Amino acid sequence: MAEEPSNGELGRLIAGLETRIGTSFAELNSRLDKVVTLDVYTIQITHFEQRLAQMQTDIQQVRSDRDTLEDAFEQYQLAERDRREAERQKRLYQAVIPVLMTLLSAAIAVWAVVAG
Q1: In angstroms, what is the C-alpha Rg of the chain?
Q2: I need a surface site. Which of 8, 36, 60, 116 has the fewest CB within 10 A?
Q3: What is the distance between the alpha carbons of residues 62 and 69, in angstroms, rounded to a whole number?
Q4: In sequence order, which ranges of the chain are alpha helices (DSSP H)?
Q5: What is the dihedral of CA 8, 9, 10, 15, to 10 degrees?
């Protein structure tokens, strides 16, 4: 009988077990408070996938808009180049024609003097 615990010791051991079990349940409840339910998880994943799909659509739209803008800018550059070339030719003709007319007048004047 000397090896068997007394009633007081058994009471203290049971009280210690109750304390440890209470602490364990408190820790478990604390952890369970942090767990997300399957419904909430499903809703969050669905929302995330919808946002991801919308972002992909937006990115594709931005790429399309950028490509359109690049094409329009290239067309503008080509049109501007053609306009500058036409302007350059116009200025050249405006400078050359009066010089040619002056040379032609001088040639006619010289011919008139020589012939007359």
Answers
A1: 49
A2: 116
A3: 10
A4: 7-34, 38-115
A5: 90
Backbone phi, psi, residue 35, to 5°: -80, 140
Q: How close are the terminal C-alpha atoms of the chain, in Å? A: 164
CB of 17 closer than 8 Å to CB of 9: no
Other C-beta atoms closer than 10 Å to the C-beta of 69 total: 10
pLDDT at residue 2, rounded to an integer: 60
Sign of the torsion formed by the C-alpha atoms of 83, 85, 86 and 87: positive
Could you report the per-residue pLDDT of 40-58, keeping only the tens digit for each? 889 999 999 999 999 999 9
Q: In the chain, which residues have pLDDT < 70?
A: 1-2
